Amino acid sequence: MPTLELHDVSVRYGQLLALEHVSVQMPSGAVTGLIGPNGSGKSTLIKTIAGEITTHDGELTWDGQPLDRRRTRIAYVPQARGVDWDFPLSALDVVLMGRSRAAGWFGRYSDADRAAALAALDRLGCSGAAGRHISQFSGGQQQRLFLARALVQEPEIVLLDEPMTGLDVTTRQITHDLVLEFAAGGAAVIIATHDLEEVRSLCDRLVCLNRRVVAHGPTEAVFTPEILRATFGGQVAVFA
Asked: Cα-Cα-Cα-Cα dihedral of 228, 156, 51, 38, to 10°?
C-alpha cells in the first residue's frame, strides 16, 4: 500500500532549527500519532507535509513519488487558534473548499459538490447551518466544519493538528470515529497530539519527536516509559 515517507527533512525558522534530519514512514490504512513536548516540531511537521511550509531540506514522497504531485489529495485539519474566524466565509464555503480539486481551475462547484458538502455538514451535526458565518460556531462546531471539509475531499493523506484540544465529549467521539474511518478507507492519517491516553486507543503507530525522531514504530513497541521519558525529558507521568 502507498506510504508517506520523509527523508532527512529539516526545517528552520531563521536561526531556530525546528526539525532536524527527520526520516520516518507513515503507511496508508493506519493512524500515526506524533507526540512530543511543546516546541518539539509536531505542528511544523504537519505543516510541512500539508505544504504550508515550503522551505525545508530533505524529501517528502508518497508511493515513491514527490509529495507535491499529490497535494490536492491531502486533507489538513489545523489547530483552531491558527484560523482567522472573522474571514467572510459560511459553513458551506469552508466545506466546499474540500471539493476544489473537482471544481477545476474556474472554481465552479457542481450540484454534486454542493450535495456532498451539505451531506457532510448533516453527518457532522451541522445541518441547517450551511449559510451561517464561521464566527458564529462554537469551537467544537468549528472543528466539525474542518472534518466535514476533509470528508468531502476524499483524501489519501489526512493531517490533524491537536484535533481533540478543548472539544466537548460528543465532538471528541465524532473526531475519533472519523479518524478511524479515514484509516479504514485506506488513507494515511497523521495526528499531532498531547493526549497520551488518546494515543493508546487511537494510533496504530507513533513518532516520538523532539526536533529529531526519538523513536518510531508500532504503538505497542514505542509507547514505553523509557521512550516517553526520553521524548519528554522526564516531564511525563506514565501509567500502566
From this structure: -20
Which residues, 6+ apart, have CB-to-CB distance to 38 below 8 Å?
A: none
CA–CA distance, 98 with 147 (Å, rounded to integer): 10
Q: Return d(Cα 147, Cα 17) in angstroms, integer.
A: 31
In tens digits, the chain (240 residues) has pLDDT values of 899 999 999 999 998 999 999 999 999 999 999 999 999 999 999 999 999 998 999 999 999 999 987 777 899 998 766 566 677 789 999 899 998 865 554 567 889 999 999 999 999 988 888 888 888 888 788 888 889 999 999 999 999 998 887 788 888 888 899 999 999 999 999 999 988 888 888 999 999 999 999 999 999 999 999 999 999 986 555 554
CA distance 39 to 27: 25
Cell of 112: 454534486
For cell 454542493, what's the residue?
A: 114
Sign of the Cα torsion 17, 75, 166, 140 reads positive
In single-letter form, the type of residue at position 90 comes to: S
CATH classification code of 3-189+199-232: 3.40.50.300
Grouping H, G, I as helix, E, B as strand and the rest as coil, residue 44 is: helix
Enter the C-alpha cell of residue 158: 489526512
Q: How far apart are CA 155 and CA 141, in angstroms?
A: 21
Angle 28-200-215 from CA coordinates, rounded to 5°: 70
Which cell numbers hold the place of 37? Answer: 513536548
**Among residues 226, 222, 192, which one has the least CA distance to residue 205?**
222
Q: What is the pTM of this model?
A: 0.90
